[in-house]
């Protein structure tokens, strides 16, 4: 009887250690995404990393009984290759588009990186797995802050304001933005009709502004000022996702 080489065997303790390491490393990256209120967060990243580790372990050690068969060619990378291409559907689900604003690209990339970390852990490539996790966290936390500071005056953002069609409303909104140092680059008006409970039609419109805002705090202050107007029904900006600026449409009677 031919003895199978030990390279195709792994102890239960080693299996446990690798899967715990995958849970830890995936959780670290997922925790940062969860803290930033992104779609794929703590548990998602843990499951992706743990799943890819399990597949890698299966690919290397799950077919050890067949390595001495003359008609079987063992390839430990065959299942791992399917993880790399197949993980894309999760990333695609994390990418959202609202007008010209696209969000979720970084989260999609982090899910893909976590899958790579899981494959490294499953293959016993611990140094690269830990190093990749460290560099991913540096990119998500430190480089994210540096990028925002560097491009604070160059980013273009959008806000959408729903108002009653009344003279002077546009001027008040433009003044509120200008008072906070926000530069309006483009504006689009979309007519609408607001139907109330008593079936009275109120002429309304949506004002879509494209502008440069120096910082989130000033945009938030401008939105608060805009929403105080009796003719403004709602004000929102995708840039401030996760902050309490989305408001329900308030009842406003025609003067």
Automatic annotation (TrEMBL):
It is found in: Cell membrane. Its main location: membrane. The keyword Transmembrane helix applies. The chain crosses the membrane at residues 15-32, 44-64, 76-96, 125-144. PROSITE patterns: ACT. It is a multi-pass membrane protein. The keyword NAD does not apply. Keywords: Cell membrane, Membrane, Transmembrane, Transmembrane helix. Residues 158-237 form the ACT domain. Belongs to the MgtC/SapB family. This is ACT domain-containing protein.
């Amino acid at each position: 009887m031919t003895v199978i080489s030990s390279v195709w065997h792994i102890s239960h303790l080693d299996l446990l250690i690798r899967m715990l390491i995958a849970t830890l490393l995936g959780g670290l990256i997922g925790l940062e995404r969860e803290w930033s209120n992104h779609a794929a967060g703590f548990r998602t990243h843990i499951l992706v990393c743990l799943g890819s580790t399990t597949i890698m372990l299966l690919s290397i050690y799950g077919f050890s009984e067949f390595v001495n068969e003359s008609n079987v060619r063992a390839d430990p990378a065959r299942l791992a290759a399917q993880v790399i291409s197949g993980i894309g559907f999760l990333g695609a689900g994390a990418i959202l588009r609202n007008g010209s604003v696209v969000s979720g690209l970084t989260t999609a990339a982090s899910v893909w990186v976590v899958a790579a970390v899981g494959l490294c852990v499953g293959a016993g490539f611990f140094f690269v797995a830990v190093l990749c996790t460290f560099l991913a966290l540096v990119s998500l936390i430190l480089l994210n802050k540096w990028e925002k500071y560097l491009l604070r005056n160059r980013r273009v953002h959008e806000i959408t304001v729903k108002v009653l069609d009344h003279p002077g409303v546009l001027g008040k909104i433009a003044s509120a933005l200008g008072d906070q140092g926000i530069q309006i680059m483009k504006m689009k008006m979309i007519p609408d009709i607001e139907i109330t409970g008593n079936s009275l039609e109120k002429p309304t419109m949506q004002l879509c502004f494209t502008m440069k805002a120096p910082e989130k705090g000033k945009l938030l202050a401008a939105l608060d000022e805009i929403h105080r107007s009796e003719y403004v029904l709602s004000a929102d900006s995708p840039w401030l996702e996760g902050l309490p600026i989305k408001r329900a449409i308030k009842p406003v009677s025609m003067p």
